Amino acid sequence: MPLEFSCPHCGTTTLVEDQFAGHRGPCIGCTREIVVPLIPRDYRAAPSRASAVNSSWMLYGVITLCCLLVLATLGAGITFLVIPMVQVAQAEARRSQCEMNMQAIAGALLQYHREYQAFPPATVTDKAGTPLYSWRVLILPYLGPEGEQLHTEFRLQEPWDSPKNMSLVSRMPAVFNSPSDENSRFQFHTSYLVVTGNNSLFPPGKSKSISEILDATDETILFVEAKETGVVWSEPRDLVFGVANLKQGVDLGGNHPGGMQAAMADGSVKFLPQDIPVESIEAMVTPAGGDWTGGGQ
């Protein structure tokens, strides 16, 4: 550390390296011999004010950096934990909304049954047997004011894809689409189908009543949830028993993690786990099989 030294003879001030302390030599001003004084012990030990300030700022910077690193690590950890929790919550919310959709549709089917003493046919046909439109059109009056208005405007003597009826397709009731099946919603495709067939609750060209259900109504499927059906909501097309692959992920389900939902003939909605045997699903589709499946939650 340089030492400030003044010549006792001429007063010239200069900086002398501390290694020359105690040495003799000529003054750079008057050339007379001088002795560089020894450096006091406390002078060597005490840092300059600038040095102390710099050290303080360096320490502050290190502490700040450490704090930022800790916060970043904690933030990453919290994000790692929170994101999956949010995703699970969103999936549960979609499943819950889907269940409410199915309860509304099941309620409409049961209201139709109370009025006509039978469920609607899966497909409405003309006198020649040509398919016109789906059962979903028939339950519109039981889906609230918007459904009633849509039913009033729908031309029941014309097929679903006539110019007039096609102009109504974009007004699909929200309950006909699962919130987990968004791609279908933008194409006005339904996520909910009945299973048709001679041994089902919706045989071709016929309407069945609850009195014809010999199995328990809470064990008999009314309609099911399906993924990306490609079926426009008013279109007379559903799953055909014996033709459709009732294995989940093929024709059924796939909209929710771990399984699918099915509406029962008593109006309840059950969640069927993805590992439920196909035979159990087939048993629930048949209303008079005399079998009990014990499936669903």
Summarize this entry quickly.
The chain has 7 helices and 12 strands. The chain has 297 residues and is α+β, with helices and mostly antiparallel strands. It folds into 2 domains: 3-45, no CATH class; 110-285, no CATH class.
Describe this structure in words.
- It is a single chain.
- With 297 residues, this protein is of the alpha+beta class.
- The chain folds into 2 domains: 43 residues, no CATH class; 176 residues, no CATH class.
- Helix content is 34%, strand content 14%.
- It is built from 7 helices and 12 strands.
- The strands form 5 sheets. A 4-stranded antiparallel β-sheet has the order 7-9-11-12.
- The protein is rod-shaped.
- About 2% of the residues have low confidence.
**Element-level helix/strand string:** EEEEHHEEHHHHEEEEEEH
Helix content: 25-40%
Question: How many H/I helical runs?
Answer: 7
- Gyration radius (Cα, Å) is 42 Å
How far is it from the N-terminal to the C-terminal residue, by CA? 83 Å
Domain DUF1559: 88-189, 245-277
Protein name: DUF1559 domain-containing protein
Transmembrane segments: 57-86
Keywords: Membrane, Transmembrane, Transmembrane helix
Which helices and strands, and how do they pair?
Elements: E1 3-6, E2 13-16, E3 24-26, E4 33-35, H1 41-45, H2 49-116, E5 123-125, E6 131-134, H3 135-138, H4 145-153, H5 163-166, H6 182-185, E7 192-193, E8 195-196, E9 221-225, E10 239-240, E11 259-264, E12 269-273, H7 278-285
Parallel strand pairs: 8-10
Antiparallel strand pairs: 1-2, 3-4, 5-6, 7-9, 9-11, 11-12
